[in-house]
């Protein structure tokens, strides 16, 4: 996950912000918004806004991930606790993933794929549906004229 700071005034994502005094507050803003206040000579805080990595939106976990993981683990003759130890996760988490109660995030799914030599991540399909455009119907406001 990438952390990119955001201007407190316009909301623009910027790598570097300027700290200004604006009325009774000290805020971090982009260069273009810094004219709204008095610049303060202090280094801006560490970024606090989390921006999801856009690359993650291109992939998703398959529907029957739990079943695939459990079958692959059993086929390889690996006990659940040993498998959990290999990928540095708890046995309880692996049990919940195998039962389908919890869906692993992409990083965990990659570790599972690598260890079991399976594929549970697929490219996400973008569904764009065509909408029917209905012809406008008359309303009473279109017919009645108020003087």
Question: What's the helix and strand layout?
Answer:
Elements: E1 2-3, E2 18-22, E3 25-29, E4 38-39, E5 50-51, E6 59-61, H1 65-75, H2 80-86, H3 91-99, H4 106-116, E7 121-123, H5 140-143
Antiparallel strand pairs: 1-5, 2-3, 2-4, 6-7
What does this entry look like structurally?
The structure is a single chain. The protein is flat. 29% of the residues lie in helices and 15% in strands. The chain has 147 residues and is α+β, with helices and mostly antiparallel strands. Strand 2 and strand 3 form a beta hairpin. It has helices at 65-75, 80-86, 91-99, 106-116, 140-143; strands at 2-3, 18-22, 25-29, 38-39, 50-51, 59-61, 121-123. It contains 5 helices and 7 strands; from the N terminus they run ββββββααααβα. The chain has a 3-stranded antiparallel β-sheet, with no helix packed on it. Mean pLDDT is 81; it is low at 47-52.
Short description, anyone?
With 147 residues, the chain is of the alpha+beta class.
> Would you state the CATH class of the largest domain?
Mainly Alpha
Shape: flat
The name of the CATH architecture of the largest domain is Orthogonal Bundle
Number of domains: 2
Largest sheet geometry: 3 strands, antiparallel
Content-based structural category: alpha+beta
The tally of beta strands, per DSSP, is: 7
Q: List low-confidence stretches.
A: 47-52
Q: Mean of residue pLDDT?
A: 81
Lateral arrangement of strands in the main beta sheet: 3-2-4
Beta-strand level of the residues, as a percent range? 5-15%
CATH superfamily of the largest domain: lambda repressor-like DNA-binding domains
| CATH third-tier fold name of the largest domain | 434 Repressor (Amino-terminal Domain)
How much helicity do the residues have?
25-40%
Total helical segments: 5
Question: Gap between N and C termini, in Å?
Answer: 61 Å
């Amino acid at each position: 996950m990438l952390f990119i700071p955001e201007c407190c005034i316009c909301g623009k994502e910027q790598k570097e912000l300027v700290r200004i005094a604006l009325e009774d507050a000290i805020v971090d803003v982009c260069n273009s918004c810094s004219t709204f206040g008095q610049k303060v000579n202090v280094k801006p805080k560490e970024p606090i806004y989390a921006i999801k990595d856009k690359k993650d939106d291109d992939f998703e976990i398959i529907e029957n991930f739990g079943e695939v993981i459990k079958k692959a683990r059993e086929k390889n003759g690996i006990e659940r606790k040993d498998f959990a130890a290999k990928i540095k996760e708890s046995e309880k988490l692996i049990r919940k993933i195998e039962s389908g109660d919890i869906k692993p995030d992409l990083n965990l799914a990659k570790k599972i794929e690598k260890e079991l030599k399976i594929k549970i991540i697929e490219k996400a399909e973008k569904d764009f549906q065509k909408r029917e455009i209905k012809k406008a119907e008359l309303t009473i406001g279109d017919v009645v004229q108020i003087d």
